[in-house]
Amino acid sequence: MLIGYARTSTVEQEAGFEAQQRDLQAAGCEKIFKEQVSSVAKRVALEAAIDFAREGDVFLVTKPDRLARSVFDLLAIVARLEAKGVGLLILSMGGQPVDTRNPTGKFTLTMLGAVAEFERTLMLERQREGIAKAKGEGKYKGGVPTVARQADEMRRLLADGVKPAEIARRLGVARSSVYRVIDPAAAAREAA
Question: Could you tell me which PANTHER family the record lists for this protein (predicted)?
Answer without folding.
Answer: DNA-INVERTASE FROM LAMBDOID PROPHAGE, RESOLVASE HOMOLOG YNEB
